Each structure stands twice: as structure tokens, then as C-alpha cells.
Amino acid sequence: MRLVGSAVRLALRKPWRIPQLVGMAWAFRARDWYRRPPFLPMPPDDYVRWRMETAYGDPTATPPPDEFERFVVWAARMRRMARKGDGS
After folding, report:
1. pTM assigned to the model
2. Are 26 and 76 in contact (CB under 8 A)?
3. What is the pLDDT of residue 67?
4. Helical spans, DSSP H, in 15-64
């Protein structure tokens, strides 16, 4: 939920990032998310804890806002390049 708060704050501060945030949320969604309450395309908690532990050494860490935004932009760029088949 901490990352959801970060995403909401980013969307409120910079609404032009909303398409990138939506793309990231969709890319990280849990499989079969529509079969389990709350029926939202959220990433699995254990995956988020693992990502935070590998990035920050603490499974309960929350990325700083500027770092979170850089990741959102980078992830959108990587997804776009993967769709185009462009390695540059």
C-alpha cells in the first residue's frame, strides 16, 4: 500500500505521468487478480517486499519520490522498447 500512496502522490503532482503509472501497475499485476478480493490489478505483496529488499536491503522500505518517478519513467521506456523490438 505504501507504493500505491507514492503512485497517487506522483499522479497528483504530475498528472502527465498517469499513463506511465497505469502501465506500470498493469505490468506488475498479480496473475488471476480478478479472482481474489479486492479484485484490483495489484502486485503480490511478497513480490513487492522482495523488490524492496533487493533494492534497499529492507522489505518495508519505500522509495524516495524522485527515485520512484525515475523508475516509473524508465519502466515505461523499457516496455515501449520491448513492444517495438528496439534494443536502443
Report:
1. 0.78
2. no
3. 93
4. 18-27, 45-56
Q: What is the pLDDT, as a whole number, of residue 87?
A: 58
Query: CA torsion, points 35, 27, 7, 66, in degrees to nearest 10?
Result: 160
Of the CA atoms within 13 Å of residue 32, those in its CB half-sphere come to 2
**pLDDT tens readout for residues 23-47:** 988 988 998 999 988 888 888 889 9
Residues 81, 30 contacting (CB under 8 angstroms): no
Closest among 9, 11, 2 to 49, alpha carbons compared: 2
Q: What percent of the chain has pLDDT over 90?
A: 58
d(Cα 60, Cα 65) in Å, to the nearest integer? Answer: 15
Distance between CA atoms of 61 and 2, rounded to whole angstroms?
9
Q: For helices 2-13 and 65-84, what crossing angle results, to 10°?
A: 80
